Amino acid sequence: MRPISCTLCRCAHIVLAYIGGQLGWSAVPVGVYFAAVMFMCTISVMMTVLVLNFHHRKPDMYKMPPWVSLLHASATIITSL
User: Fold this and answer.
1) Residue partners of 19: CB distance under 8 A and separation at least 6
2) Domains contained in the chain, number
3) What is the distance between the alpha carbons of residues 80 and 72, in angstroms, rounded to a whole number?
4) What is the DSSP string of 70-81?
5) 12 C-beta neighbours (distance < 10 Å), count
6) How far is the C-alpha of 32 from the C-alpha of 17, rounded, in Å?
7) Of 47, 58, 63, 79, which has the highest C-beta tally within 10 A?
8) How far apart (Å, rounded) are the C-alpha atoms in residues 3 and 6?
């Protein structure tokens, strides 16, 4: 994962330097935009890994805590109304 993140940071730096050279001081909002996009992509990947982790769990491998089964039961009752 580390080489990929270094490559992405270098790529973003090159793009920002290129845009900054052409646009001057107006490149600051572009940097904020790229930072926001990288943050959203990071959150998206983390949530995808979390959801896939929960989706592929087997009942015999993990014991579900009581509060999760209570939450699931209450959500099932609410959606069936």
Assistant:
1) 27, 30
2) 1
3) 12
4) HHHHHHHHHHH-
5) 15
6) 14
7) 47
8) 5
CA 35 distance to own-chain centroid: 13
Q: How many helices (H) and strands (E) does the chain have?
A: 3, 0
Q: Structure pTM?
A: 0.47
Q: Is 64 helix (H, G, I), strand (E, B) or coil?
A: coil
Q: Which residues contact 31 (CB under 8 A, 6 or more apart)?
A: 16
Domain that holds residue 61: 2-80
Strand (E) positions, the chain? none
> pLDDT tens track of the chain, all 81 residues?
556 666 777 777 777 777 666 655 555 676 777 788 889 999 999 999 988 988 888 777 778 788 888 888 888 887 776
HSE at residue 67, side-chain half, CA atoms within 13 A, is 0
